[in-house]
Specification:
There is one protein chain. The chain is an alpha+beta fold and 131 residues long. The protein is built from four helices and five strands, in the order H-E-E-E-E-E-H-H-H. The protein is globular and about 50 Å long. 29% of the residues are buried.
Length: 131
């Protein structure tokens, strides 16, 4: 998949420097986009297959502030934030680590701004600069 975004370029540089210094971790970019539409900030990490399952993780779409996860083939394939940049940043690791879909479906709802406490039991295997 071709990713043309400044974050991808930055992550490639970090991975290249790490490899030069002996880190054998393969580069695996996470697709990302964001847009500001008037008073709405939309951000997403991962991919969003048309047949993916959707679950609202925090907030309420009718209030204009929420996060959601997309599950595909048993793993979290993408996360979406609608006016919730801080919460979404915490959920990125679900995509990076290919967290099982049950990590989202079994966790129950999470109040806004408490996402870091709700997902504290999900520990990434590796932490990058943007994790």
């Amino acid at each position: 998949m071709r990713l043309e975004h400044r974050m991808n370029a930055t992550e490639q540089a970090i991975a290249a420097a790490g490899n030069l210094l002996g880190d054998a971790t393969p580069f695996a970019a996470v697709p990302y986009f964001w847009t500001d539409q008037y008073n709405t900030r939309i951000q997403a990490y991962g991919i969003f297959p048309p047949d993916a399952d959707l679950r609202v993780i925090s907030g309420d779409p009718s209030n204009g502030r929420f996060t959601a996860a997309y599950g595909h083939r048993g793993v979290v394939a993408g996360v979406l934030g609608w006016n919730a940049p801080r919460e979404l940043r915490m959920l990125r690791r679900l995509v990076v680590e290919h967290a099982p879909w049950t990590a989202v479906t079994d966790a129950g709802p999470c109040p806004p701004l408490a996402v870091d406490r709700c997902w504290k039991n999900i520990r990434p295997r590796t932490l990058g600069v943007y994790s």
